[in-house]
Amino acid sequence: MLTDKKEQVNRLAAALLKYETLSLEEINQVIQGRELKHKLEEMNREKAIEEQRRRDEAELKKRLKDERAQQLAELKRMLEGYEKKEPATSRMDKKEQEQDD
After folding, report:
1. Which residues contact 27 (CB under 8 A, 6 or more apart)?
2. What is the rounded end-to-end Cα distance, in angstroms, of the chain?
3. How many structural domains are present in the chain?
4. What is the domain range of residue 62?
5. CB contact at 8 A, 25 and 10
6. Are residues 45 and 12 in the same domain?
7. Which long-range contacts (CB under 8 A, 24 or more apart) does 45-51 make?
8. Which tens digits make up the pLDDT trace of 35-56?
9. Which has the least CB within 10 A, 1, 39, 41, 75?
10. Residues 36, 40, 42, CA angle at the centre, nearest 5°?
């Protein structure tokens, strides 16, 4: 039977490799030698959606990284400003100053 229907079996095998899953109607179409245009369109849509999701994810990661870098830079500027206003002293220095007074 397989040798008699070799062409149909090969078409079905190729379609299964390409699409992974087929409905009964799609199997019949493949065996009859018809293209599964709707399946290709569906795969192309899914691929486009996945590609857009990846681009969106990469953009979001970049934005978050940039925001974190800006926040860190702002914190550094604030810390530098604070250090300029009040010189760093240790607790021991403060105690010694209090005892001297």
Report:
1. 12, 15
2. 108
3. 2
4. 38-86
5. no
6. no
7. none
8. 898 888 988 999 999 999 999 9
9. 1
10. 115
